[in-house]
């Protein structure tokens, strides 16, 4: 069964900037993970027709919104993650994620949903501290007009297979 995920892609030039930063501090997993805000974490799903119909229906029920990313945060000590925070569009992401995680993608989350963009994961504490400090002034805004279905393969990593325009 394929492993899928659903996310909002971060547009350029910020996607490359954040991915390059993540690679530069030694987070090699970033080479196979496009920069994103997760809506559905990695999960197995076998039926692409059912999944596509569900995601298209969810997308039609939500309107485009502004996403503002600013500053850094961390999930430590619970999880060794440093992230760029969402400061506008939080409730939009929460509603969208909740709707996407219904029907065929219904699942219990390991942690409460908190929209963010990971910039460092499973690295030594001093590197996590550095990431927290070095990207503390990060700031960007953009319109979210769609979300994406990603499929994971071991050789390539996460790749977009479908896009779902909001409000259409």
Give keywords.
168 residues; alpha+beta; Cyclic Phosphodiesterase, Chain: A; 4-stranded antiparallel beta sheet; 4 helices; 8 strands; globular
Percent of residues in β-strands: 35-45%
Would you state the CATH class?
Answer: Alpha Beta
Number of domains: 1
What's the architecture, going by CATH?
Alpha-Beta Complex
User: How are the strands ordered across the major sheet?
Assistant: 2-1-7-8
Number of helices: 4
What is the H/E string? EHEHEEHEHEEE
Number of strands: 8
Approximate shape: globular
Structural class: alpha+beta
CATH superfamily: Cyclic phosphodiesterase
Describe this structure in words.
By secondary structure, the chain is of the alpha+beta class. It has a single domain (3-165), classed as Cyclic Phosphodiesterase, Chain: A (Alpha-Beta Complex). The protein has helices at 14-24, 48-60, 90-100, 125-134; strands spanning 3-9, 36-44, 65-74, 81-88, 116-121, 139-144, 146-153, 157-165. The strands form two sheets. A four-stranded antiparallel beta sheet has the order 2-1-7-8. A four-stranded antiparallel beta sheet has the order 5-4-3-6, sandwiched between helices.
Task: Please describe the topology of this protein.
Blueprint: E1 3-9, H1 14-24, E2 36-44, H2 48-60, E3 65-74, E4 81-88, H3 90-100, E5 116-121, H4 125-134, E6 139-144, E7 146-153, E8 157-165
Antiparallel strand pairs: 1-2, 1-7, 3-4, 3-6, 4-5, 7-8
Summed up:
The protein has 168 residues and is an alpha+beta fold.
């Amino acid at each position: 069964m394929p492993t899928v995920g659903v996310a909002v892609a971060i547009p350029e030039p910020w996607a490359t900037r954040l991915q390059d930063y993540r690679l530069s501090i030694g987070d090699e997993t970033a080479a196979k993970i496009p920069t994103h805000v997760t809506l559905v974490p990695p999960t197995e799903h076998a039926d692409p027709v059912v999944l596509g119909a569900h995601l298209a229906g969810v997308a039609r029920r939500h309107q485009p919104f502004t996403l503002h990313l600013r500053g850094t945060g961390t999930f430590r000590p619970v999880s060794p993650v440093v992230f760029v925070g969402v400061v506008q569009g939080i409730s939009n992401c929460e509603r969208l994620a909740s709707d996407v995680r219904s029907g065929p993608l219904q699942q219990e989350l390991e942690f409460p949903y908190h929209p963010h963009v990971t910039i460092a994961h499973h690295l030594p504490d001093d590197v996590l501290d550095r990431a927290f400090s070095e990207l503390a002034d990060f700031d960007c805004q953009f319109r979210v007009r769609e979300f994406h279905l990603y499929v994971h393969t071991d050789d390539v990593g996460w790749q977009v297979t479908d896009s779902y325009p909001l409000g259409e």
